[in-house]
Specification:
single chain, 483 residues, mainly alpha, Cytochrome Bc1 Complex, Chain D, domain 2, two-stranded antiparallel ribbon, 13 helices
Length: 483
């Protein structure tokens, strides 16, 4: 009633003002005094009745225009990324006999990176970097892999995760502008098992389920402490993110609560979701960032895409404050940045992450070396790993990381160029990722450019000029499967 009275008073006041102004002109007619013309979305008197029309805000109008543009460009963008992938890789499904730790998905085998015409892996491995550069022979699949829509970037989730969260929480992780680009066979098994350092006797505590805000308590009750349980609740609580939020520049049709930490790090592992690293500029120089596993973070000392963070607490706080918003604190503040308290919430989240263990490795002893269960081929691979192949220089046992950063200087092999919105410059210093449980974590390298472990061995054989034989490469892959 008050709003109707106020509106009537306002209109009456407007009419009086009109009378005064027109009186100054010297005359007044019936046409001079009338209700104001209603605007779209305003409450106005139309033929004596008060009506209300829906408000179209400028921001929603901008959102609709962006939605229409992105949907119109969707097929062409996806086709362009498929063409790039098919040009670089053999994308066929060729499973090996090795299963991932949950036993539900086979590890893919074979080198999938395609060579240039007239080249073999043996010939390329014998060719000096300067000649590879001059002859433009560096395989395209060894170049940086661009984001499926690099000019926009942002988190992109695989269909398995999108479907699981939609079913469990009615929360939509599907973007209208892009889809996940890699075939399912090159992603981790879903859902991945969960192993806890505090309860190794239990094995996988996931019960074959995707951990969500709906089921985490049931699955972990009696297995973790109250502090760890609260940490898990926070890790599973969605909060605004650059492309998943309430604002007009979101990439979901419906306004979203956002994403949670474990939307990417499913069950404390990874589902191969990707985005762009937040700490490089300008946009074309940023690189695609494949989600790393949280298994074994208790024994890692540097974190973040450029490894500038020195504890899991630092990493957790940075992720929630800025990384989810492309490293932009101003944008984060606009969209609804989450600011967990360092002394309580961040500490609890870190405590939960710090009990996420590597999967069991029955062929490794307490020092991370092969025991008598290993085959002759696997033992040959181990000898190469710690010898001729020099892998252990950066990946020492037992956790197979040196917690340092190394620069492979790929600029020796190719000239950078623009590829689908990315300037594919050399990587620069990259952290040594742990190789424990590596068979569970395809695709490989920080941007997922290497689809299989066979690709990874070929990559380092070339880049480090190791000159391994085909048999030696096969043995090395067999050893990696043991880790």
């Amino acid at each position: 009633m008050r709003s109707r009275a106020n509106l009537t008073t306002l209109m009456a006041g407007s009419a009086v003002a009109a009378v005064i102004l027109l009186g100054m002109r010297g005359s007044l007619t019936a046409q001079d005094v009338k209700p104001p013309t209603p605007r779209k979305g305003d409450e106005s008197l139309v033929k004596g009745a008060l009506v209300k029309r829906p408000v179209d805000s400028p921001s929603e109008d901008a959102f609709r225009k962006a939605l229409e543009k992105d949907e119109a460009e969707f097929e062409a963008n996806q086709a362009g990324q498929r063409e790039l992938l098919e040009d670089r890789y053999d994308l066929g499904d060729d499973p090996s006999e090795t299963k991932m730790s949950g036993g539900r998905k086979a590890v893919q085998k074979g080198v999938r990176v395609k060579l240039g015409e007239g080249w073999t892996w043996e010939k390329l491995g014998e060719t000096p970097p300067a000649e590879i550069l001059a002859r433009k022979a560096f395989p395209k699949g060894f170049h940086p892999l661009p984001h499926v829509k690099h000019v926009t970037g942002g988190q992109v989730f695989p269909k398995t995760q999108i479907d699981a969260i939609a079913k469990a929480e009615k929360r939509d992780l599907k973007r209208f502008d892009v889809d996940f680009d890699l075939p399912d066979q090159f992603t981790p098994e879903f859902p991945p098992p969960i192993f806890l350092t505090t309860r190794p006797d239990l094995g996988d505590v996931s019960n074959g389920e995707v951990l969500t805000i709906k089921n985490y308590y049931r699955l972990l009750d009696g297995k973790v402490t109250p502090v760890q349980m609260e940490g898990m609740r926070l890790l599973l609580t969605p909060f605004p993110q650059q492309q998943f939020n309430q604002t007009e520049d979101r990439k979901t049709k419906e306004a979203s609560l956002g994403v949670s930490c474990l939307d990417c790090h499913t069950n404390g592992h990874t589902n191969a979701a990707f985005h762009l690293n937040p700490d490089t500029r300008p946009q074309p120089a940023r690189f695609r960032l494949d989600t790393v596993s949280l298994r074994g973070v208790f024994n890692q000392r540097i974190h973040g895409s450029k490894r500038s963070l020195r504890s899991i607490e630092d990493f957790t706080e940075f992720e929630q404050r800025t990384a989810y918003f492309d490293g932009d604190q101003v944008t984060a503040a606009k969209k609804g940045v989450n600011l967990p308290d360092r002394a309580s919430q961040v500490a609890m989240m870190a405590q939960m992450q710090n009990i996420l263990d590597f999967p069991p490795a029955p062929k490794l002893d307490v020092f991370g070396r092969l025991n008598d269960k290993a085959s002759d081929l696997e033992k040959k691979g181990e000898k190469l790993f710690f010898g001729k192949a020099t892998c252990a220089e950066c990946h020492p046992a037992p956790h197979y990381t040196d917690n340092l950063m190394h620069d492979l200087h790929l600029e020796r092999f190719y000239e950078p160029g623009m590829v689908r919105g990315q300037n594919d410059i050399a990587d620069g210093p990259i952290k040594t990722f742990t190789l424990r449980g590596i068979k569970d974590s395809p695709p490989y390298h920080h941007d997922g450019r290497l689809l299989t472990l066979d690709d990874t061995v070929e990559f380092f054989n070339l880049v480090l000029q190791l000159k391994l034989s085909s048999e030696e490469k096969q043995a090395l892959v067999a050893f990696l499967h043991c880790l």
